[in-house]
Amino acid sequence: MRVTVFGAASALGRHVVEDLVFRGHEVVAHADASAPVPGGWPGEVAVVPGSPADPAVVEAAVAGSEAVISVLGPDRTGVPAHASLAECTRQILRAMERHGVRRYVGLGSCRSLGPQERLSLLERAPLHLALLAHPRGHREMAGAVEAVTSSGLDWTLVRCLLVHGGQPRGLKRVGLFGRDEVGPCATRADVARFLAGQILERRYIGAAPAVSG
Question: What is the CATH number of domain 2-212?
Answer without folding.
Answer: 3.40.50.720
